Amino acid sequence: MKKYLLYIACLLGTLVSCKKNLNEQPQGVLASDQLNTPVNVDKMVTAAYSSLGNENLHTSNSLWPWGSMRSGDAYKGGDGVGDNSEWNDYETFVTNQNTNSLTDQMWAQIYNGIARVNNALLRVNTISPADYPLKTSRQGEMRFLRANYYFMGKILWNRIPYIDENVPTTDYIKKSNVELTSDQLWAKITEDFRFAANNLPATQSDKGRPNKYTALAYLAKTLLYQAYTQDDNHNVTGIDQAKLNQVVSLCDSVINYSGYALAGDFGDNFLAATENGPESVFAIQYSKNDGTQFGRIDMGHSLTYPMNPEYGCCWQHIPSQDLVNNFKTDANGLPMFTGYNDVDATKVSDFLSQTFDPRLDHTVGIPGHPFKYVPTFVYQTSWARASAIYGFFTSMKDDAAANDPSFQKIPPFMSSSKNWELIRFADVLLWKAEALIELNRPLEALPLINMVRQRAGNSTARLKQADGSFISNYKVGTYQPGVNCVWTQDFARQAMRRERRLEFAMEGNRFFDLVRWGIADTYLNTYFASESTKRTYLKTAKFTKGRDEYLPIPLNQINYSKGLYKQNPGF
Amino acid sequence: MKQILTIMLFFFCTGLYAQQKTVIGTVTDKDLGKPLVGVTVKAGQATVITDVNGKFSVNAALNSQITFSYVGMQPYTYVVKDVQNPVVIVMEYLSGNLNEVVVTGYQSQKKADLTGAVSVVKMTDIKDIPQGNATKALQGRIPGVFITTNGSPEGGATVRIRGIGTLNNNDPLYVIDGVPTTRGLEEINQADIESMQVLKDASSATIYGSRAANGVIIVTTKKGKKGINRIDVNASTSLQYYNSKLSMLNTQQHGEAYFKASVNDETDPNNNQIYQFDWNKDFANPVLNQVILPEFIDGAKTMKPANTNWFDEIGQTSLLQNYNVAFSNGGEKNNSFFSVSYYDNKGIVKETHTKKVTLRLNSDYSFFNGRLKVGENLNTSFINDRLIDVNGVLFGALVQNPIVPVYTVTGGWGGPAAGMTDRQNPVRLIQDNKQNQSYFGRITGNAYADLAIIQGLHFKTTFGVDYDGLYERTLRKSYVSGFLVDPSNLTANSQNFDGNLIWQNQLTYDLDLKKSKFNFLAGQESIHYMNQNFFGSRQGYAVEDINYAYLDAGSTNILNGGNGGAYSLLSYFGKANYTYDNKYIASITVRRDGSSRFGQDNRYGTFPSASLGWRLSEESFIKKLNFISDLKLRYGYGETGNQTAGNYATYSLYSAIYGTDPTFTADRGTAYDITGAGTGTLPSGFVKIQEGNNSLKWEGTKESNFGIDFGLFDQKITGSVDYFVKKTSNILITPGYLAVIGEGGTRTFNGASMQNKGFEALLNYEGQISKDLNFSVSANIATFRNKVTFLPSEVLTAYPGNGSTQTIVGHSINSIFGYVADGLFTSQQQVDNSPAQPGKGLGRIKYKDLNGDNKIDDNDRTYISNGNPDFTYGLNFNLSYKDFDMSLFFQGVHGIQVYNTYKTYTDFSSIWPGTNWGTRTLNAWSPTNTSSNIPALTLVDRNNENRTSTYYLENGSYLKLRNIQIGYNLRNALSSIKVQRARVFIQANNLFTVKSKSYTATDPENPGGAYPIPAITTIGLDLSF
User: Fold this and answer.
1) Who has the most CB within 10 Å: A473, B148, B698, B959?
2) ipTM of the shown complex
3) What is the pTM of this model?
4) Smallest CA–CA distance from B485 into chain A, residue
5) A519-A523-A524-A527 Cα dihedral, nearest 10 degrees
């Protein structure tokens, strides 16, 4: 009996000593300190870049859902207003609330990018240059990337928490979105771009990395935004002349020394075959057949393709009738500043019976017009989706032709590995023009605007029907003071603003331009009054001044911050 | 035929003239196999009683009947045959009997001695119900066990014991022949189950400490028993009917509804790509003359307008078959039980199909005069499923336009055309995927040795293995279906392997000191779980045939991946039971569990419990009251635990994620085309995936249970009532987090608390009208109230509420938060005088201004439903008359507000204008149809009527006739052949449903689009030789 008990005690004793069995080695993962080798640090830098392409269907880093769909350039599209109703809330403003899940998603996406940068930067900062010869350049790249994300956050929300690599994670919760004033936030962004400009090489062999001039260009853009001073209710109170002067000189550096130039054809900017061309100052690099199932493609534009069998979903981001009418040109080939909306251009004959800026057929898919430069691939009314609600147009800059090697299906969606331009050289020209006009040097701005127009006028080679004839009746003229216009500051401003619209239509900039200029409320409410006679769903749309210039801080983030974050005015 | 009759007659006569024979044998009870003393044995005129060893000897004529009777047990009839003595008679306790033995975790107890809330399942009630999953058949039968199912042939069920205890997984722990598992019972053969017990409260479940917080379901499978040598055969065939199809518009109706919606909007109805309308062009008084259909609906002219009823196209009446053979053999020194089953369920959605084969071998061997018992329980399951995306198919059937034909004129797939939304042809989804299958195998087994060291002291060691593997190979075919086209194909191949190794050691000691009885249990258990998986896929298959589509045959886009994980548990436990004079009962349990998932200092959790029972009926003052045959008060308190955290939640980790599937959620990858090459292998890095929490510890549940068991009139009426209060704290949560932290901010911690209170009652009546006519009625009712009692502020937004002033704290975790729909605007005056509501108008939904600020916005939301029923109930009738038996089982849920998601499609033309809509839209509100509560038709939902609101809430109460069964035992008719039992039966499941009129879809049990629950009719046969 005792013997048995002893055996059992021994047995149980052996098992007790198995306590170490409760240690389980994590499988297939790494701890942070395993990543501080030079090779791994550089990989962390790559991971930070990678976040540029980590977009969701709804959160394009091109910002089109905020920059173009809220600007009068585009409707939401899709299958009625309930399809992605969060976007309908953006587009019509009245029902946009702090619970809009896409606002929260985009916020998180931007800060995911910032966190990756800070994580990499902290490692780069601590490694010795001897071990890591690229240290300085990589620091510049990371700070450039961080400034890019903060710029996006700044124009979307105005007041956002600022966190750099020196803030310990435990202190993140102490960083309020109103800790820095709007100007201090701009200063942080410009500081990063300045550091990048001072530390980046003039050229980079990897096309995805920014160089000195990329940083200078982005710095110019940031200073231009900052130059328009705003009060707490988003009223533009003045334009900082000193900053405008900096914008001019920064743009000059880029224009004179970077080697960037306008692409020969406007369409080069929207085709995979000509990506990373002379006009590409900074672009998101997408790829396919790269070891992932569908490629690291441009998911941010995956809902924008039409409904024909070659594509099949989802016909969102639809050019407005107002935008199409704006491409009309007058007898001098200049944009029409009045009367363009008197008669809508919709049918094939409408585009032949009056003159248009060729950028129309680079930007807008129109029934009866070849789609994406393929003469035999003609956009049809049947390619549209809820046409009773949104008409029949479709967007084109975001899409790739179905036979293009960059095109990729990702059922039930599709997109392409075509790069997306965040800054192209035309932007630099028009920023400089804008700064000059606001400095009341409109004449110096004239050649810049005309350069852009000239190139537009020359960009018709791809715009042909199968029979070789032009798709629309194109006519583009340059501004010739005293001949076809009176080039005052006011006129120049109007011309520059229209030029930006035509040049960058559907590219995700427009709404931010309107807010920068302080005209978002009057501009958009005028647009709603006119457009809602054609699109009845816009009848409830209304832009509320002092509120809708920026998105609400997501309720989730206010709650997670335990009330530290302060809501934007009006929400 | 005549010959056969003659032969039968001959056998019969032989019997009549047979000579007397002395039958000797032993009577044992079924549960424990122990000898029964004092059983009355009647053979003709002779009556004897079994002795202290359960033995008897009686004279009887060959082929005559010997009857055995014993209080509280099923009478047993033995037909004297010319076989060798001795015989073993096994008697079974009537349910509700106090001597019934209940398995309570590492040991068994008499029901009379139970102090916790333990429910015993009457396996006979569910025996022949062909659900392929024993838990499914239990729906409504055990108070406090809330089971939800769907109609999928795979047979999954969701089991919730006593409400919702945690924010994590609420599934109970299953213990099958001592092997704990979190997998449900769909993978074992229902017919193999000997008994099932549900440990509902913490005082009884604590013995399984870790993971017992959601309750424990203990399953014991059949074993060979001494003296039993039998073959059981069960066979049944069922037809399943799809009787819950939603009423959707046909082509003509859809056109009319579209017209109505368009003219309501005052937009030209002909400005669409599907229909043309011949109408009077007067928006003030629109008159539709004719809906004109195009010759073809697509530009390529391949699809003629059809009038497809998609539900009819995807549904079918289907066949379900169930076969089972069990061989049971008991001897002096070894027993064995062997069974084989085959289950074949074709679902009511075409081509869905599950095949399941199980094999079981349970055997035991005795040595050294029974002091050492060695045995094993072994189960293997093989399940073969068709991998059809049933959700997609059902959704397609709901929303696909009726004008779309199933096939094109050339036999290709029909599909959406211009003006329609991008939804798949559900028939294509079925046909293009029917070749895709999964193969699942599982081996569960344990081997044990039980040594009686001295009288009453046993040492038992058990080593268990529970491993399963899942293999899938799927071919995604290229297709053209309307404007939905995918020219690529893909083969994906994956394998998952996971399971547990379990080692248990236990010592039990029974001590019997006249009035005081003790039993002690001490034990130790270690569990190691691991899982590993990998997948591969390729594209570019020359032939789209599953016989060809192996990875090797693919040529492009070669991908693979895999990962794994593991955890360990180490536990010690002890239990002492004490009974004094059969009156006072006490039980104490302590379990200490260690889990690898928790921080170094918090790995171990201690889970104690104590319970008391007082058998009032043993007191003399109650004994005087003759009508009370049993009365017991019970109280128990216990603590249980939960370890539902990630395996490595204590560590901060980075992962080399190259890229993830970006289809619906953002890519989380680290690869980037930094060189601008546009293709080829990309440079990549690492990304943080989680923040560790080294102070992570066990989630704990504390539960008090008050119970009363009673029996009246010699146990004719029996019942029990339980009341419980269950509080869970330190609930493990992995909440969202402040976004500035970036990826990998996910951190698991112990944070929330929740409370459930409820009561359960069960009442049985066993009646006898005449010797041959017996009946029983059993009813149960259960209810619980759940509320979240604490949540850290950063988590609040993840649950219904606004995260600040209105939070889930104080509400049920199933609560729905939304607007209150206050009918429709029926006059312009109402529209003008109501609070500001963007999009308001005639015929639109009016929302209530709850905060009275004269505008409708996010601040006007409130908790509109707690998501739980007021109570659930079941009602069972059994009737037997001679060889006939009949049973009826009703199950119901009362007082639940369900969110009818179908309404988005059945009531609105505006939320998804490009899909089909329900026939309810034909009765939408209009100035001439003012009594309707369905919003006016429109194509533009300016009023955001898709918002969560009470418009979608409906009374989901129902009462279902779950099962009706009629059987006839042919035993007597077939007495001449050596059959002990030959029962034929017919039965039906879900024959009818009583539901609220206000529920507008078809099946309130299924308000969210899950696999429809079929009605089933079955014919079957049970034979025992």
Assistant:
1) B698
2) 0.95
3) 0.89
4) A309
5) -170
